[in-house]
Queue: 3 jobs
Job 1
Amino acid sequence: MASAIHPASLCLFVPTGNSSTNLFFFRNRSRIILTQKKCRVGVSQHKRVISCCSVEPFPRRRICRRDLALVVLGLSSVSITLPFSATLADEELKMASFMDEINAYSYLYPVELPSKKFLFKWVESRKPERYSSAAPLSPDARLRIVSERVDIIDNLIISVTIGPPNSKFIKSTDKSTWAAKDVADSVLSDKSALRVTSSQRLAESSVLDAHSNEIDGERYWYYEYLVRKSPTRLDQESIYRHYLSSTAERDGYLYSLSASTLSPQWKKMGPFLEKTANSFRLVSPTEEYVPPYKDPWRFW
């Protein structure tokens, strides 16, 4: 006999008894733009432009629904063996482009390793939506998820959040003076569903590296971190989620992409997530763009 949990866009069936197989079903309401090219996507003068670029290497409506997905991803890691080795990071990787015209940003994400006939299994768990109606990550609703996609088989999550800077860490309005570690702390201090202080939220995460880079006149801050709350345990070893993030500022708000997997899979999946984090770009707004400060009362 099976029990079923039905979040807004995710259905999870967990067989009981001695069964060792979990079946996961998603309803994909994706409205994405796919381009099988290793290129950056931008918008200029109301036209989509795809142009190849070199990227600086990385030195390294409901909260309960997202938390459930994270738990499922953690549990599914126990029995998964990836069909490729870490050396494939340098292999030709096919990536697709994603454009969110509502919030005016883009990024690339991996879709296939042709030589190994390996396909990523992405599902858009949160379609793009305006900041005012997006799901909050903390009780004060400062930081919100405006889009998210998951590969539940390979334990991957790519999410984009928007929120104002935390004045505890970012005290100046001149973003050219912002330190990468301060930007990382600002974002992470608001990234928790628990009713705790920003300092307690920050303590859940460990920033491993942080740096910044200017691309096409826009400053981007990059940081790598672990999230230590509620780790999955396997053979007495704690398993955490390992993240790479990229953040940029526009209209007084921080736009952040986070790509993550579980720590045991980092050597295999980390290089692919690095490409995604490095590809994140704010693009020129179109008529579809909705600034985060517009109509804060509107939730649809």
Note: The two ends are 38 Å apart (CA to CA).
Job 2
Amino acid sequence: MKKNTNHCRCVGLRLSPALPTMLRLLLICLAVLTTPPAAAEALRKHGDDDDSSSGGGCDAGAGKAPSPPAMWVFGDSYADTGNLGNLGRELTHAWYDPYGLTFPGRPTGRFSDGRVLTDFIASAMGVPTPVAYKLRRGASRALMARGMNFAVGGAGLLDTGYFQRNISAQIDLFQAQHPRSSTRGCDDDAGVAVVVISGNDYSAIAEKDNSTSAAIAYIPTVVRELREQLRRLRDEVGMRKVVITNLHPMGCTPLFTRALDYAACDPLANAGAAQHNAALQSVLAALDPANRTFFLLDLNTPFAAFAEAAPAAGRFEEPRRPCCESFSADGYCGQQDDGGKKQYVLCGDPSKHFYWDDAHPTQAGWDAVAETFRPKIREFLLSPDE
């Protein structure tokens, strides 16, 4: 459900066609070994600051209230907090200015000017943002006991062609670190899984076939795989609480609205997102009729409310125009020419924009969305699972 351009425009990763195929593959493979020093140092400090709490969803001791559950994140760039390795500005521009402008004032690999969905879900749960898998060596044991983020920009449920670990492979990583027998104790609580899907599978198909309709035809295949991974998290991994996002209105992202002078959303892409969401609801109804294990985190409704609102009437003065706008339709936020000259324009106040770049919300956008789900997540976590 994504328009074709001359560059790979997946949510979270760009591959330049000018690079030879083998070189591109080598660079992607190197990503798993790359950890920016600044990010690692910041994480070590964060871990030291939090070293006094045990976490993990267990009782802290006799007479003490149980600590919040561990949070395990699987997904793509809407959830990634630093797992996509730094391969240079063109390939992985979230590690470069102006990303991270609002928080923490420098790039951290988050696809925003600041915090992303993972940060706001963690806050709603009452836990620190889980350590990114790539940065785990710099984290304290106490911090890692509270969860981990396996999400990586560009990932999908299936192989998207962007050389990123899909959801199944991310769950494999969790199981390798946490065999089922070792995740038990404390009333058999493995924590809470969060699964974030923002449409890379559909973007890849639309890119390949130059057709939004082809992406829509792919919905049954994607949803079948999603069903399998949700079942796996419950039945094989042993998660008793799983949060799963539905698909935002993709036609309202600047990638689509730019062609409409940012005045409206693309109806066909939005219809595809609605079809995906209807199929997902059917899957959850069949897997969990009592709504005890799975919680559908509705992103579509608040995204639509904010992005489709008239600028004068809505919360954001610029609901569909990105804060960071490339000069050309096939450019990207943070792009520079060979001489280092900026090829993008940056807004004066990101909080007035719902979108940061052509696909990802600003921190203010995510904060507005989070206001709609904070109490619902807390209610879900407190609900009985038996």
Note: Confidence is low (pLDDT under 50) at residues 2-10, 12-63, 181-187.
Job 3
Amino acid sequence: MASMSTEKATSSLSFLSTPQWKYDVFLSFRGEDTLYSFKDHLYDALKQKDIFTFKDDGKLETVQLIAPERLKAIEESRFVIVIFSKNYASSTRCVDEVAKVTRCMKETGMTIVPIFYNVDPSNVREQIGTFAKDFVEHEEHFKENIEKVQTWRAALREVANLDGWHLQNE
């Protein structure tokens, strides 16, 4: 009888020590800017190091809205790499992802690493250049729900202020 309760306790403890993450890394990127370039090289490098990474490759990216599968994959990831590119903020799916990862960072301690791919980090932080244009369009499209756009703006600023990498390829 004592061994049975010890077995149950050990089983419970092993459940607690089981990693809660399904993915090591979730890649957030704007497909048209990075689909067959930097993002693929990064994904391959992570895979070679046996780092289990979620990337969409366009299967779930056909609509502007964020698919439930992506939300779940974000929640099940330990790290998120956000690849900011020139047209990143033009996609409501991308800005929804950033809003979701900032919530996860606060709730679960998720680590977010921004990469500024051919875009100046200050453009993202200050939302100037293409980011300004994209947010003017979002504000027009979501004028009935301007709080959503404000959430996106705040999330982009928050992630853009984290330590990351600035890569210029042009």
Note: The two ends are 70 Å apart (CA to CA).
